[in-house]
Amino acid sequence: MHQTPDDANGSNSPDHKTAALDLLPMEGMYEQWFLEYASYVILERAVPAIEDGLKPVQRRILHAMQLIDDGRYNKVANIVGQTMQYHPHGDASITEAIVAIGQKELLIDTQGNWGDLRTGDSAAAARYIEARLAPFGKEILYSPQITTWQLSYDGRKKEPRTLPVKFPLLLAQGVEGIAVGLATKILPHNFIELVEAAIDLLKGKPVSLFPDFPTGGLADCTHYHAGKRGGKVRLRARIEIQDQQTLSITQIPYGTTTTSLIDSILKAHEKGKIKIKNVVDNTAENIEILVHLLPGQLAETVIDALYLFTDCEVSYAPNACVIQDEKPVFVTVHELLAYTVARTTDLLEQELLLEQQALKEKLFFASLEKIFIENRIYREIESSTTWEEVLMTIASHLEPYDLGRPIVEADLVRLTEIKIKRISQYDSLRAEETLTQLQSDLATTRHHLQHLKDYTIAWYSRLLEKYGKGRERKTILTSFDPIEAQDVMVKQYKLYVNRKQGFIGYGLKGEEFVEACSDIDDVIAICKDGKYVITKIADKLFVGKDIIYVSVYDKKDSSRCYNLIYVDGATGIAFAKRFQVLAITRDKTYDVTLGTPGSRVVYLSVHPNGAADIVTILLSPISRTTKKKFEFNFANLSIKGRAAKGNMVTKHAIYKVQRKGKSRSIPAEVALWYDPSTGRIAPQGSGQLLGLFGPTDKILVVFKEGDYLVTTYPLTFQPIPEQIALIEPLRDCHLLSVVYYHTIQENYFVKRFAVDVRVLDKRYNLFLSESDVCVLKLVTSSATPKLQLHYCIDPTGNDKRSIMYDLEKVAIKTIKAKGTRLSKYRIIEVSLWNE
Questions:
Q1: How would residue 797 be classed by pLDDT, with cut points 50, 70 and 90?
Q2: Mean pLDDT lowest for which of 39-53, 291-305, 414-428?
Q3: How far, CA to CA in Å, does 588 sit from each of 503, 526, 534?
């Protein structure tokens, strides 16, 4: 650049000095601009305010809707245009925000195609769909007199700084936002539970809140931690077993859609994580995704695989961040609720104070008007010639009256504006009634102010009664058991072994096939010298020469038992033992013998159900004993650890060991649990422990609609909890006591009968016939059943009594028997007797 001499030597001109002072280093400019941008995104776009739970765009939409509200629907395009007067961004972001509010079905009433959260279908264009404020939104959002206002971005309009929201809106709707270096995620909660929690908080009771999602499903909130950072919520789809070949997904996790869920299932199928026949989407009014299984698959295992490898289970990390006092703060949902309840109480107090002031003014002027008309003061001003004289005349006649506050000129002017028609038709009696009513309303308002907490509780209760219908909890709260990938992984590989050379793996095609496996399985291999190792499966792996046993290893298999005979290399004595392989370290070499050089295994068998072998032992022909053949029963040995020495079998050299058979062993039993929230029956579950079940043990299921059936595990259907009256193990000579109401005869009956176990999975009707109009009231299998009867002696229902009714005195008959009438009196309630 060309420089003048003055530029080169430096100038002392004022302009030059000012320019020099305005120069900033690049680092300073970047820091200033970035902080301004970050602050703007946090405060004005991504994070909601704690006062009303709204982001700026949501607040401006609701403000614009209130200004144009006339009770009719408005085109969303029109609402967007109105909102753009306050929101300095494009119409697309406003439209998206309106649709998001409308899909929550809380603040605005919608009309048209607003999309579907469940399927992911988008809403129609803004020019086609309509909206208006919902009654609930009008009731909790607005109160212009107590709203703090500010100028809009261009200074032409006024907009609310925050809306006076009288409800924990942020907790009800939930929110998600990503700012610069900051994010917020508050999960939605149930409307009814929020109102009840607010009431409990005002009453000083403990409060516990958990999320509730519009898509339903199952939720494990064990680690929710009241929405604090670091918490976690796991969500699962609700999957029902229609039959052993068909699964039905009826509810999906929040944040997923039927399309994304099906895509995740198909991807898991393509990767070999799960194996299914096909997936059919029958979703219409209700969600229904049918997953058809391949023959031979266990439905419970496929369900676990869906939870593990697909979007049938998702997790969320809550992060309750809000704007308070112009800065972001992290809170819990309980703190957020407490703040909202306190603010609601304050807003209601302000509204009551405004109402009290308005009632005082009405009462004041009504009293002033009554005095003015009844005392005919209006006639006294007829002779006044000037305006000032008129006002002075009225004021002088009102001086004797004390109306609670001084009479000002505006009051006098207002009296002069009363029309002659009103004066001529003035009714003193009606005016007195109006004054009385105003005084009563004012007394009520003052009472509310003096008992503000009770008033707030009543306000919440009315809100719940008015708007709570149809807003019951959709998500089932439960706890999820951990699912091990090894338990549900599809066996897509084949395990091979080269016994002589000591290699195993799924890449040894052409060698001896062992069994199907997955790429995450562990394998146990035992060699002739008694060494064994447990290692992760691989394409090809050396584990030791002369392999005598190889199999996929399950560390949780506590019923698998090993029958072993080995010869000690130091003494030549043969020992036998039964042991299990449980706690191990992967890739560590263990020894089932005493570990002396030259030890060898002469017999090994493995049984998954703990069976004990009977073997024939042939001794060497050159052994110095006359008895060279004898039997040995492993059932005489106790199951011990793998390091146990075992019992001595013989001191002589063994020529051969032949298996003769298996001793009778007790079949493996499994503990079954019934989860009353999902209806699932499975081992290692949660909920109600049904008991230990063997292969022949049976389960009794009684349905509320009046049927029962006997089945075995695994069930051919999944019980629906809402339809189950009783579920328990079937005992020998299982007796049921049934109380039912006959709607035609209008009487309660009780009968006892033995459960028919001749046919499995057949539904037996509990009543006389399926045509009987009967309602099941109570069923029990107690050995000594007793009832608590509440009944009325007189028809008016005033003389109420209770007795204990012993069901043991009821004769045991067949299921088709009508039974015994419980009472000749009108029964109010029947329940089990609690001693």
A1: low
A2: 39-53
A3: 17, 12, 7
CA distances in angstroms from 267 to 157, 182, 500, listed in the order given:
53, 33, 40
pLDDT score recorded for residue 687 = 76
pLDDT tens digits along 108-130: 999 999 999 888 889 999 999 99
Contact 790, 828 (CB under 8 A): yes
Sign of CA dihedral 426, 430, 436, 440: negative
> 544 by DSSP, 3-state: which?
coil
The pair of structure tokens assigned to 213 is 């999602």
pLDDT tens per residue, range 143-182: 999 999 989 888 889 999 999 999 999 999 998 887 767 7
Cis status, amide bond into 714, omega within 30 of 0: yes
pTM assigned to the model: 0.72
- Interacting residues of 222 by C-beta distance below 8 A, sequence separation 6+: 479
Tell me which residue of 777, 763, 775, 766 sits closest to 829, measured CA to CA: 777
461, containing H or E segment: helix 452-467
Contacts of 762 (CB under 8 A, 6+ apart): 709, 710
* % of the chain at pLDDT higher than 70: 91
Cα-based distances in Å from 379 to 393, 420, 425, 482: 10, 11, 16, 91
Structure tokens at 177: 């936002």
Of 219, 311, 233, give the one whose Cα is nearest residue 274: 311
Q: How confident is residue 784, by pLDDT bands cut at 50, 70 and 90?
A: confident
Are 674 and 688 spatial neighbours (Cβ–Cβ below 8 Å)? Answer: yes
Report the chain's C-alpha Rg in angstroms.
Answer: 41
Residues assigned a catalytic role: 128
Distances in Å between the alpha carbon of 603 and those of 101, 201, 562, 609, 613? 72, 71, 10, 19, 11
- The answer to whether the beta carbons of residues 677 and 478 sit under 8 Å apart is yes
Residue 371's pLDDT band (cuts 50, 70, 90)? confident
Query: Three-class SS of residue 32?
Result: helix
What are 619's strand-pairing partners? 654
List the domains of the chain with CATH numbers: 1-36 (no CATH), 47-165 (3.90.199.10), 210-335 (3.30.1360.40), 346-467 (1.10.268), 554-662 (no CATH), 674-832 (2.120.10.90)
Q: What pLDDT was estimated at residue 88?
A: 85
